[in-house]
Amino acid sequence: MIPPLYYLTFSLLCSLLLVSSGISIKCNKTQYDWPVDNPKLCCDKCPPGQHMVRRPVNNCGIECNPCESHLFFSDSYNVNPVCTVCKDCNKPNMELESNCTATHDTVCKCKAGFKWRDQSCTECVLMPTTIEPTGPPSTTASRLGNVTKPQSPREPIRDTVWFLVIVALLCAGITLAVVIKIKPFLQWIRLNQGYILTKNTMRLPATEDEGVSKPVQEMCGKCDQPLEVCVKE
Questions:
Q1: What pTM value is reported for the model?
Q2: From the CB of residue 124, how many other CB atoms can be counted at a distance below 10 Å?
Q3: CA separation for the pair 85, 73 (Å, rounded)
Q4: Contact criterion met (CB below 8 Å) for 58 and 71
């Protein structure tokens, strides 16, 4: 009779085999898992500068060949059947910075005055230019010993403004003085003019009516009728 301990041990071993067969293998970036359907091992990839020629199905192994320099490159561990084609720098406003190698692609750069359009570095565009003034400087310099002191161009303008202010104040003062002095004179003229007009009015000649009234009185004095009748008429 088989002891119960053997049954327990056998069951434990079978369980471990089932669990281990179900665990997936995780390989690093320099390896690939083999076989493809049910990976159990990690196999080495082709190193940078090479590409895969053949990968056996029955064993964990790979055959690699180097990339053709200056035409193709491979910059990482891979299982690619071919290398990557090197790019060229014959686009407008572009020039070569470094040649292509088996492990690095060609490096291009933009010509002077140009920059990359975006981070893909596939097209060069004209750099924006800043317009700078080309005229003479607006300030003049006066030398004091070894020190050059720029003079502000606003000083003549400031002097002109002060001159105009002073002239305006003088004109206002003169106008005010003239008004104060001429006011009594105008009052004197007004008083004298009223006196002259009054005097002339008192000396006016007699009117035509006064001249006619005298003959009437004389005729009334010669009238045969009573004096009261003559006056009424």
A1: 0.45
A2: 20
A3: 7
A4: no
What CA–CA distance (Å, rounded) separates 64 from 49?
10
Joined together, the tokens standing for residue 179 give: 């008004």
Q: What is the pLDDT of residues 80-116, one digit of tens each?
A: 999 999 999 999 999 999 999 999 999 999 999 999 9
Q: Is 194 left (phi over 0), alpha (psi -120 to 50) or beta?
A: alpha
Where are the domains positioned within the chain? Answer: 24-126, 160-203
Q: Do the beta carbons of residue 153 and residue 138 sit within 8 Å?
A: yes
Choose among 49, 108, 46, 53: nearest CA to 73. Answer: 49
Structural domain 24-126, CATH architecture: Ribbon (2.10)
Query: Identity (one letter) of the amino acid at 130?
Result: T
CB 126 within 8 A of CB 114: yes
